[in-house]
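User: My instructor asked us to take a sequence, write out its structure as tokens, and then describe one feature of it. I'm not sure where to start. Here is the sequence I was given:
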Amino acid sequence: MATQSGRILLGALDRMVYSSANYWVVMFSDLAGALAFLALGLNRFSGPWVVAGGVAIVGFMSSGLLEYVVHRFVLHGPPSMARRGHAQHHAEPRALISTPLFVILIGALGIWGLLGLVLPAGVAALLVFGLYAGYNYFALVHHWQHHRGIDLTCVAYLRRLDRLHHLHHHRQVVNFGISTTIWDRLFGTFQPTNEPATDYTFWSTIRSYWMKLTCKPSATS
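Assistant: Let's start with the prediction itself. The structure tokens for your sequence are:
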């Protein structure tokens, strides 16, 4: 009975992943979740506003690392429902595929609980708000990359991210960052759209920029 119930639950979750209704509800519920953690953090935080803002910014900047780790090691990792759903996204990039409604919220609550073990509740909530805000930014950028509801190709940074992400769809082992290239550069998985993926880590990028500033030839340029 338990096994049958588990199969029914997994089937329901699987159908939810491919539901367009779930996709749009998740988009708006994640925004609501971020605002809820912002309200909680401001309610519990007793320090200066500038410190609260700094904590939230730290959370936002950390979201890119979480995005990278999940994309590389979960969505392109061992066989799982998450990997299967992501493989379907690669097969049908314009399909409205998303995680089940409650997954991100449960993850946010779990992170808040863990952070709350070592940090004041208000600080933990503001950090999670920053992470949640970063996730919303990622979701909007990723949606734009595949659906183009608004023409933002005039924004050079977004246009470049778009080209890099579409290269990821072809190669699948490079450019795991959707909203930033920082972590791909740091961990050696960054590949420009017009260069081979050889020795292009964060530090080689810094070295390349230095060579250009000093007018010296660079092996990575």
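For the description part of your assignment, you could build on this observation: Residues 98 and 189 are 24 Å apart (CA to CA). Try explaining in your own words what that tells you about the chain.
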